[in-house]
Specification:
The structure holds two protein chains of two kinds.
Chain A: H1 7-25, H2 27-50, E1 57-60, E2 71-74, H3 76-91, H4 101-120, H5 124-143, H6 148-179, H7 184-194, H8 198-212, H9 223-230, H10 233-257, H11 262-285, H12 289-308, H13 313-340, H14 350-353, H15 355-369, H16 375-388, H17 393-421, H18 438-456, H19 458-472, H20 475-483
Antiparallel strand pairs in A: 1-2
Chain B: H1 2-23, H2 32-45, H3 50-58, H4 60-81, H5 96-118, H6 127-144, H7 152-175, H8 199-226
Helix pairs in contact in B: 2-3, 3-4, 4-8, 5-6, 5-8, 6-8, 7-8
Classes of the chains: A mainly alpha, B mainly alpha.
Chain lengths: 490, 228
């Protein structure tokens, strides 16, 4: 049964290769291929979770035992992310039918496959391959959003992403030149002796900056506002909600397994703090809803980087809580922005035009700010208690910035909410106001329902995340699961 | 200001790399996994070309990823280029030598391309290299006769079926109870043309896909350019 876990990774690729052929004969059949594959992927991954297969387990691709071959490592964290990838792929599926449908849907399938690979792979270079695939598929999807602005932002993203890829590859090369292996578990075994030095630190920093391009890490996040403002909302939602978190997952695995130097953690903490400050201040000044969301997402990811700098189970719990909370919220908000793009001023009085959308926006905003009893409060509360328990003054600076950021967040989100519920401008009749389209609003409502459900069942959700964090923080478990029975470090 | 930061970053990166490089032990790479693969590869995969056994065996899923990256790049380029209207090429025809030279080279390039693909498990070369030569074979007539067209439908059919057969071969191993992409039918005939089990089939799929993809992309580019 556990062998089938490779299917959610491989079937989308299979579908992507065949889609252009099928679309040539029949568009109506072709249009069902992608959603069917993703639904099947959800089913397989969900079934793994429910059937209670003993997690974690490792699956050798090609039957070559790691570290010689490539393996997939499936623990609850990887499974959770892989499931989220397939589900969000389905929710953000590009249904639009026109002459570029085949290409767009094939790229989306490739993006989903690569993201699943990022969640599951247990090999450093294999992660890089999937990271590149994510990047290339994303370029296409952004450029396909149309308009010269989308082209320009795609080109800028391409250049920055290219620099990031080169840096990541450099880091991987340094690691390989020092250890002679690429398997994460094998590296974790060798790291205390061979990578606990300047070379290891350099390798981590280059990978951090390289992967940080997708994780919206300060200062390599300049592509974020432009891309999110010009790409279609579905693409932006998938990128902001999920792809950034998968890049974060790579850094999380590297930190837990391989790099334990205090300098590495300090750099991440400082970059995270700077990200929070720059992101939230820029969001406060933004005049366009999508840009505001993009900058706010930079700030939120900065908070997650601050949480990542606490390398214990408690810190990981905060990381997971903030990550999944942001995933729900930002995906939902971008779906709302689908109809509400453009200048914020134009949204004056829009609540009368679309009461449901405005209500969902307020719900998301309150949770993002951290209003109890919404899940956002618990996520932020976890981080605050963790930060307060640290002794180093840098963490206290992080705590201060984090609390200030929350105030700024409240200022700009509630300002927009007040605009929505305020009176409409005199010369514009209510019927002409913008309104999120039906499908986007339905998707956003789904995320709203998910958020409310998480608020109702906060105790079991918290226990679950704690369990997931505990499993992810256990380095020995990872090493033993992957290398069991292969004679260890031979 | 922006130039200055760029300069500082580049300078810092260069300095860091120099400092790191001075400490590296060149000429004595740690052959931890590499050595183990060199010792075991011919028996485990049946390929004398160890690079092939790594590319298609030990790291087969990386190759699948690379194929997908190429596919994604071609699809993205198609999305961007497809927006312009393609009209008939207006460039002048190539001369006598170019035209007939291109026609004569076509079968030769085809033969070499397939030779390199089919011998990927024995000699240096393989699907990627052979595929590029195949693409060149189809692109050469286009250079000689700018008005000529490649059959895009045919190319995308070849490409799609080649890519999906790579995955199907992998899934076939899965359905036999083995791991995904596990080499099957490994015969005890090291060095023979028919050896190494499914690896040459995988390389054929890679070669056809790469060839069809590049040929399609090149002709797409040529057509878009010819109208400017």
């Amino acid at each position: 049964m556990s062998d089938l876990i490779v299917l959610p990774l491989v079937l989308p690729l299979f579908g992507a290769f065949l889609l252009p052929i099928v679309m040539r004969t029949s568009i109506s059949i072709g249009a069902w291929i992608g959603p069917a594959i993703l639904a099947y992927g959800c089913w397989i991954l969900g079934d793994q979770w429910i059937s209670g297969t003993t997690l974690p387990f490792s699956l050798a691709i090609g039957g070559f035992a790691p570290p010689m071959g490539i393996n997939l490592y499936i623990d609850s964290l990887a499974l959770l992310f892989a499931f989220a990838v397939q589900l969000l792929g389905l929710l953000f599926w590009p249904f639009k039918i026109d002459q570029e449908t085949a290409r767009r849907q094939a790229l989306m399938l490739l993006l989903v496959a690569a993201s699943t690979g990022l969640a599951l792979s247990g090999d450093l270079f294999n992660l890089y391959v999937f990271y590149e695939l994510v990047a290339v598929a994303t370029f296409g999807l952004i450029a396909a959003s149309g308009g010269s602005a989308a082209y320009a932002s795609a080109i800028r993203y391409l250049i920055l992403s290219g620099i990031g890829s080169v840096l990541t590859l450099l880091g991987i090369a340094l690691i390989y030149s020092q250890t002679g292996t690429l398997n994460l578990a094998h590296l974790a075994q060798l790291a205390p002796e061979q990578l606990n030095n300047k070379l290891g630190l350099t390798a981590f920093l280059t990978i951090l900056i390289g992967v940080g391009v997708k994780a919206e890490l300060f200062p390599v996040n300049t592509w974020v506002p432009e891309v999110y403002a010009t790409a279609t909302s579905r693409v932006s939602a998938f990128l902001a909600g999920l792809v950034s978190k998968l890049a974060l997952l790579i850094i999380l695995r590297l930190l837990v397994l391989i790099f334990h130097q205090p300098e590495a953690i300090q750099v991440m903490l400082v970059l995270g703090i700077l990200g929070v400050i720059s992101g939230e201040l820029a969001a406060w000044r933004a005049k366009d809803m999508r840009r505001m969301l993009a900058f706010s997402s930079i700030g939120q990811l900065g908070m997650i980087f601050i949480a990542l700098a606490i390398p214990e189970q408690g810190g990981l719990l905060a990381v997971l809580a903030l990550t999944f909370h942001h995933l729900l919220i930002k995906s939902g908000l971008f779906m709302l922005a689908d109809g509400w793009g453009g200048a914020i001023e134009k949204l004056r009085g829009a609540a009368k035009r679309s009461p449901l959308a405005a209500a969902i926006f307020v719900l998301f905003s309150l949770s993002l700010i951290g209003m109890p009893p919404l899940p956002g409060f618990w996520a932020k509360f976890t981080l605050i208690t963790q930060l307060a328990a640290q002794t180093s003054p840098l963490y206290l600076i992080g705590l201060t910035v984090f609390l200030l950021a929350t105030v700024i967040e409240a200022a700009y989100l509630l300002r927009l909410a007040a605009l929505l519920y305020g009176p409409a401008a005199k010369d514009t009749p209510i019927d002409t106001l913008a309104k999120p389209a039906g499908l986007s609003l339905a998707t956003a409502s789904l995320f709203g329902i998910g958020l409310l459900a998480a608020a109702l069942f906060i105790a079991p959700v918290g226990d679950l995340l704690n369990h997931v964090a505990g499993q992810a923080a256990n380095t020995d478990l990872y090493i033993n699961t992957v290398l069991a029975g292969t004679g260890g470090s031979q | 200001m922006r130039n200055l930061t760029g300069l500082l970053f580049a300078g810092g990166l260069g300095f860091m790399l120099l400092a790191i490089a001075s400490g590296l032990d060149f000429g004595a790479p740690p052959m931890l996994v590499g050595g183990a693969i060199q010792a075991a590869a011919p028996q485990e995969t049946g390929a004398t070309n160890i690079v092939t056994s790594v590319v298609l065996g030990y790291r087969g899923i990386d190759t699948l990823g690379e194929l997908s990256i190429l596919f994604a790049a071609a699809a993205s380029a198609g999305l961007v280029l497809g927006r312009r209207h393609t009209t008939a090429g207006t460039l002048t025809e190539g001369g006598f030598v170019l035209k007939h030279g291109g026609a004569m080279l076509f079968p030769l390039l085809l033969t070499i391309g397939f030779y390199i693909i089919f011998h990927g498990h024995l000699t240096p070369g393989g699907g990627f290299q052979g595929g590029v030569i195949l693409a060149a074979a189809f692109f050469l007539p286009l250079l000689a006769r700018p008005g000529a067209r490649l059959h895009h439908g045919m190319l995308s059919v070849i490409e799609g079926f080649a890519g999906s057969s790579f995955i199907l071969i992998g899934l076939a191993a899965l359905s036999e109870g083995e791991a995904f992409l596990q080499p099957m039918l490994v015969q005890d005939a090291l060095g023979q043309l028919v050896s190494a089990g499914t690896l040459p089939l995988l390389y054929l799929a890679v070669g056809l896909k790469v060839g069809a993809e590049l040929a399609g992309l090149l002709s797409h580019l040529a057509q878009t350019e010819s109208e400017v």
